[in-house]
Amino acid sequence: MNAPHNWIVPDWPAPARVRSLITTRNGGVSSGPYASFNLGLHCGDGESNVLANRMQLRQWLPQEPRWLRQVHGTRTVSADDLALPPEADASTARKLGTVCAVMVADCMPILMCDMAGSVVGVAHAGWRGLSSGVVENAVRDMGALGDQILAYLGPAIGPRAFEVGDDVRAAFLAHDREAAHGFTLTSKNKWLADLHVLARQRLAHCGVHRVYGTTMCTYNDPARFYSYRRDGTTGRMAALIWMESDTR
Known about the structure:
Shape: globular
CATH topology of the domain at 18-157 and 211-243: CNF1/YfiH-like putative cysteine hydrolases
Oligomer: single chain
CATH architecture of the domain at 18-157 and 211-243: 4-Layer Sandwich
Strand content: 15-25%
Structural class: alpha+beta
CATH class of the domain at 18-157 and 211-243: Alpha Beta
Distance between the termini: 12 Å
Radius of gyration: 17 Å
Number of helices: 6
CATH superfamily of the domain at 18-157 and 211-243: CNF1/YfiH-like putative cysteine hydrolases
Helix content: 10-25%
C-alpha cells in the first residue's frame, strides 16, 4: 500500500493478508486547529468536514471502520459484528475486511496480529488505559498465545514531552516495580513518562516480545500530528488494521 499525505504504513513482519494504516493530520478539508484530516466527531470540528475526511479514508479500506467511543478505559470488543460504536478502547477482528480502528492525538495506538494472520486487534493506550490493563485485555481477546502475536507501536507523545505527576507513576508501579524504568525525574519534581517503554513492558507481561514500531513524537511534530497535550483544541488521527484475502 502506498498511502497518501504522509500517512504511515507500518513496516513490520505481519502476514501478507494483514493490512494496517495510521493517518496523519494532512490531506483533508478541516481548517483552523483541526487542519486538515480530522477524523473525530467529538472534537468540535464541523460534522460535514469530519464526514468528508472519513469518506476519503474509506477509499483506502475494504469496509467502513468500526469506530469506538473511547473513554481511556480497558474494555475490548469484537469489531466483527458491531453496528453502533460501543464504549471501548480496543477491538479485535477475525473476519476478512473488518477494520479495527482507534483515534489518537498523543495516546499510543498499538496494532496487533497473530503470526497465522487469523486475528487482528488495536488498542488505544494512553497512560490510564495502559496502566489499567487495556493491553492485557486486548491480547486476551485475540485468543492467541503471546509468543504468536506481533505488535506495532504507533506515534505517541514522546518521553521528552510527556510530563506527569506522582499519581501516574504510582499507577504503573502498583502493577510492576520495573515500570520505574519508564520514568525520568525532572528538575521540577515531575516525571517524564515514556509510553514506548511502558507499552513494551505490558506487552512483555503478556508474552508478546515481537514488538515493532516508531518512536515518532506527536507533540514535537505539529506539521504532521495532532497533539492534545500541545494544543488542547485539536483533531484526531486514526490507527487501523484489518485482514484481506491472501489472493487479493
